[in-house]
Amino acid sequence: MIVSFLTYINTDQDLTIYLSPRAISAKSAWDFDPGQSSAGKLERILNLRFSDSDYNRPNLMKHYLNALFAPASVAVIGASERAQSVGRLVFTNLLNGKFKGKLFAVNPEHATILGQPAYPTIQAIGEPIELAVIVTPPAAVASVIDSCGAAGVKAAVIITAGFAETGEAGSRLQGELVQRAKKHGIRIVGPNCLGIMRPSIGLNATFSKGGAKTGKLALVSQSGALCTAILDWAQSAGVGFSTVVSMGDAADLDFGEILDFLLGDLETNNILLYIEGIHEARRFMSAIRAAARAKPVVVIKAGLHLSGSKAAATHTGALVGSDLVFDAALRRAGTVRVKTYAQLFAAAEALAFGRRPAGNRLAIVTNGGGPGVLAADCAAENDIALATLSEESLKKLDATLPSSWSHGNPVDIIGDADVARYEAAVSVCLNDPGVDSVLAMLSPQAMTDAESVAQGMIRLSKQTDKTILACWMGEAAVQSSRAAFEHENIPAFSAPENAVEAFGYLAAHRRNQQLLLQAPSPLSHQEPPDIEGAQTLINGVLAQKRLMLDEAEAKALLAAFHVPVAETLIARSPADALVLAEQIGFPIAIKIYSPDIVHKSDVGGVRLNIRNGKDLLIAYQDIINQVSKVRPEARIEGIAIEPMLSKPHAREVMIGVSTDPIFGPVITFGAGGIAVEIEQDQAIALPPLNHHLIENLISRTRIAKMLGNFRNMPEVNRAALENVLLRVSEMVCELPELKEMDINPLILDETGAIAADARIVLGHRLQARTGRYSHMAIHPYPAYLKKEWILPDAACITIRPIRPEDAEIEQQFVRGLSPEARYFRFFNPIRELSPEFLARLTQVDYDREMALIATVPAAGKETEIGVARYSINPDGNSCEFAVVVADDWQRKGIGSRLLAELVECIRDKGIKLVEGWVLKQNTGMLQLAKAMGFDLSTSEEDQKLMYVSKRL
User: Fold this and answer.
1) Rounded distance between C-alpha atoms, residue 442 and residue 811, angstroms
2) CA 20 to 30 Å from 466, out of 317, 327, 642, 774?
3) 228, 461, 490, 505, 842 from 483: Cα distances, Å
4) The whole model's pTM is what?
5) pLDDT in tens, 105-136
6) Domain shared by 79 and 27, yes or no
């Protein structure tokens, strides 16, 4: 019982094709020349042209943005012969680029433009037009869109400026043109943009002076000016592009949909982004995470120094600026961020080599002390760790190198080093377990044969899994060496700084890819929190038209999620204070209790280490007098009494939550106490968190070094700290009203963790957003979908969403399918899933797709016996689905149960149409589909296929 939907993947052996059966069967794509190569078969499939009906049912072979990036015909509306006009530049670029499709000029004032016939309207052309490039005055654009709609245009690039960027009137014009475009089903790039390029087909629909070489880099930019600068730089550097998109005002198409196209684009190997801001965080994160799983994504982001709101009610709200949040989002998406567009290409070039270091520890081997020092300085500036060589490695180097070698890292092997000395030193470093990568550096000297040494490094590279980078300084004397490195796919550079920065990009990419792989649940595997009680508390506060919780309420909310808190009692009078202090036990700490005072220390509202009743009465009145003097308008309702936490080995940290207007809730960790804003030591992560993400978060702070053995103090209880961060992650996931929170200080020592103080600010739930976790930029692992099911034969089945860790059981599941089952599933007699394809099946973005697997326990592990998955089509309203059940477990109701659960997931996403294609001989799947209420019809493209669909 199998239905198929999948894509192609380049396996390690050959190009194996996995396609939607509709795409394969169209135009008799099965009818290949037996002698044709796999690559040739794929090329033929990609060159097929589909009918309009096929276009209206999106599939992976004909993306709905093909009209934009692979148009058969282009009309420039507003083309002109007027010197220096935008219309002339755009039309000239298309002519000079030798666009491979049909090109038309539209301008009612001219009969010809640049020697080409001009048409008064787009309808007058009399031929189908797929892409319109619009350079008319802004007031005319909306009516031009109507004309395009009448002519059947599918996409438009609006280069014209004068819209939202000009103010309210321009925004109205922009809103009108977007409404008309939606009415006609036209997708828009722009307005106010440079345009787009697709060099492989000669499409240069921009007003840039000059084109671009064909290459494998895709550039997507929100700035036309920066796009022009990058293109100019790339021309002189010989860098080529698969696609260039200047988004402008991004009135319609945004990063999300363009990234989705580039993800499946065979012409694109690396993606470069210039970002100023985004509109929809969930769509952006979903798309960039999907793209970064398959292709390196390098980002340059404007606005590095935007500060947070100084009016925030918590320390966290004041500390966290938008750029810090954006940086955290890019790390979690598995991308690499750079600061300049020269670095943009350098990072892309480094990542294109493919091999990634296992960590951040770099060994440097050089025949010159000065270059080694430069490299070491650059490593320090870029937070790259110079590896500490083991005693064994040092002894081996002592035995091999001249006595005057540097005896450390960088390993200076002296200026007269030959190939044997280079190979010996680099080999020792590669074999050191404390080294992740080696940078081999050479400055041309009479005693050193640069090319021989290069060949030696190439030999070593083939014998190790670790990364070797080369820095052959100079030009004429080392050109052939750098060419040899490039031929063997070894990163080679001419300057130490560039080489070290490139290693930094490689290390950052690997580290961030590990973050990308994490799929945490919203709830940790610990004692369940009292979510219902917490929600009742929040609803009560909001019912009183309050947003700030008092300290007792804040600690009660933390306690509902099992965060250890210091007991707090409220005294309304000195007599109450004496009674409560005896109840808690001296020594105690007291704080002002006022709904109008957030930071108590700032107004003198805290007294510590009170040891008896007499001191308490004095301190009580002293606090009241002091605060009344500093804040006479504040409502003072008493004092809060807490036990004085005496922990000689304590370290104070802060854990916070703030809400970014774009990315939603973020979690911060860093140094705590009263000087938190001065310390400015915090790291940020997007929830949900797990242990791996928490370790990464803690490691990015300075205070992390103080949590271990420090100044005769024992290491803090790291498990207790991680537990609190996991609990805060739970709060963020399950309480969408939580806007800001400080746990400051959280006191840590070797025995555990306790929250001494807490501030919590609420916000109202956004009604416009739907879905359980719609307030978050990253959809958590949907653990709530996990269900247990007992078969009549007493077999216990678990149905749950797939996780990245399920790669092994997914591979075993596919291996265990019969040849017929694999053929029904993949329309190809595959035997093994490639690592890339396996990652694609198990690293699921739960916001756009779902895979539910059925498992049974076996020998203390899980065994997969079935899977059902859907993937949302680009139209956002329909999805394709697949169901597979292991041969030995068929006819037990597992397929129908999996499909029923999957359909409920699809219904919850608001998808209206579920569809799939099944071979007619796959009678089991057809019977299941019919029993589940699907409609069956013979495929229009291939009589051997059945189209199954269900409207929800």
Assistant:
1) 45
2) 327
3) 29, 16, 10, 22, 39
4) 0.82
5) 999 988 899 999 999 999 999 999 999 999 99
6) no
The rounded Cα 628 to chain-centroid distance in angstroms is: 50
* 378, 440: one domain: yes
| Region 909-937 average pLDDT | 89
Q: What DSSP assignment string belongs to 634-661?
A: S---EEEEEE----TT-EEEEEEEEEET
Least confident of 105-109, 723-727, 847-851: 847-851
Nearest to 246 by CA among 174, 210, 285, 192: 192
C-alpha torsion sign, points 161, 162, 164, 170: negative
Are both 95 and 117 inside the same structural domain? Answer: yes
Residue 554 in domain: no
pLDDT score for 2: 40
Spatial separation of the C-alpha atoms in residues 943 and 937, rounded to whole Å: 10
Sign of the CA dihedral with 162 first, then 166, 169, and 172 last: positive
Closest alpha carbon to 728 in 703, 697, 763, 701: 697
371 plus 455 within the same structural domain: yes
DSSP β-ladder status, 787-790 and 796-801: antiparallel
DSSP state, residue 951: E
Mean pLDDT, to the nearest integer, of 681-688?
93
Residue 745: pLDDT over 80: yes
Work out the pLDDT band at 748, boundaries 50, 70, 90.
Answer: very high
Q: Which positions ≥6 away from 160 have C-beta within 8 Å?
A: 78, 134, 135, 136, 137, 138, 141, 190, 191, 192
Q: How many residues does the chain have?
A: 952
ω into 191 cis (within 30 of 0): yes
> How many CB atoms within 10 Å of residue 5?
25
Instruction: Give yes or no: residues 119 and 35 share one domain.
Output: no
The domain in which residue 186 lies consists of 66-252
CATH number at residue 450: 3.40.50.261
β-strand partners of 241: 217
What value does the mean pLDDT of the chain take? 86
CB 590 within 8 A of CB 616: yes
The backbone torsions φ and ψ at residue 100, rounded to the nearest 5 degrees and listed phi first, read: -80, -10
CB 590 within 8 A of CB 607: yes
Q: Of all residues in the chain, what percent are helix, strand and coil, respectively (each to 5)?
A: 40, 25, 40
Neighbours of 553 (CB within 10 A): 17
Backbone angles phi, psi at 726, to 5 degrees: -65, -40
Residues whose CB is less than 8 angstroms from the CB of residue 674 and which lie 6 or more positions away in sequence, other chains included = 601
Total domains in the chain come to 4
- Residue 668 in any domain: the answer is no
Mean pLDDT of 164-175: 90
pLDDT at 35: 39
In a domain, 176, yes or no: yes
User: What is the tens place of the pLDDT at every residue in 889-906?
Assistant: 998 999 999 999 999 999
Please choose, from the candidates 931, 938, 896, the residue with its C-alpha nearest in 3D space to the C-alpha of residue 917. 938
Is 622 within a domain? no
Q: Determine the pLDDT at residue 459.
A: 95
> End of a domain among 252, 283, 301?
252
Say which CATH number the domain at 896 has. Answer: 3.40.630.30
Residues 88 and 223 in one domain: yes
Pairing of strands 203-206, 73-77: unpaired
Distance CA 851, CA 107 (A): 52
Q: Which of 223, 252, 281 is the last residue of a domain?
A: 252
What's at 474, amino acid-wise? G
The whole-number pLDDT of residue 835 equals: 73
Q: Are residues 82 and 43 in the same domain?
A: no
